[in-house]
Amino acid sequence: MTPIYLDNAATTPLHAEVLEAMLPFLRGNFGNPSAIHSVGRKARTAVERSRKAIANALNASTGEIFFTSSATEGNNMVLTCCIRDLEVEHLIVSPIEHHCVLHTAEHLAECGKIKLHLVAVDEVGRVVPESLEKKLSKIKGKTLVSIMNANNEIGTINDIKTIGAICKQYGAYLHSDTVQTFCHYPIDLQELDIDFMVGSAHKFHGPKGIGFLYINGDVKINPMILGGSQERNMRAGTENVPGIIGMGKAVEIAQANMLEEQTYILGLKKYMKQQLIEKFDGIKFNGDVDGNSLYTVLNTSFPPHPKNDMLLINLDIAGICASGGSACSSGVDAGSHVLNHLAVDTNRANVRFSFSKYNTQAEIDIVVEKLGEILG
Fold this sequence. Notes:
The protein is of the alpha/beta class. The chain is built from 12 helices and 12 strands.
């Protein structure tokens, strides 16, 4: 039986057209894009075509897009290099950032590299702009603010435009992790005051192991990985050509079908929410579920039940893939740092269901039925 996959916030299935675009660069077109011969030039042309696809999607310049192995690498690079190259002394993050930002920030603070400040979030996990403005008004010294566009666990979307305007008012740099929003929502960098942002291909039906970093052309940082002149001297190491090609193709597909897919996937989310309400007394949902929230994520809080501790395992046995939080925290028995900060009742079972264009209403009917059997 093919599993019902509702963990698309962790990773998405590879689009068939993306695989087809990658295959030639895994076979005959294997050239190193730094080589000057014809095979290398063919690879370089394809790499730059993908760079242009990302730049066009963001309304940015191709010279502002740099390929990385992942959004995690990009996030680490921004935080580390801003301290080293831009003389940043203060770092402001939210307490519910993805761990690749939060843990990096905590490490840098422990090493004495920066002073770390936590901005307040409200009951649905949204950064409070007044809290950010208050902190920036009191800080003396160069500051980097790192706020994710949307939370990967509960789906709450932050007002990056307002946050950017506040940062600009106080002369702070702004970095945003847009892993859950890039290629799901329009992002126009000409309308936003953002200095750095990252994305990751496997969140929008591209391959794993490839991401990108946007660096505003008015900002200059130096590479974190040394040893070669690739990526215009910004990241050493031979480029992951098949991955880059796949990401570029995934961007093109997502941009062409964005509105249609938003409507369809949001319909699935609303349908599942309603079915769960009808099936379970006392069910709740974490985050701003009916407000400004990812249409791909439904973080569900089930009432106390003796089988709650085994709910995810029982769902897996039933052929249903879902998660309790970030995939990057898998195997860690500390619970979700996001839900812990929001003081969600630990006696309840919290499950993140996340959807893609490949899911169906029929699958949701099966999931709700199985949940009723498990928690019946």
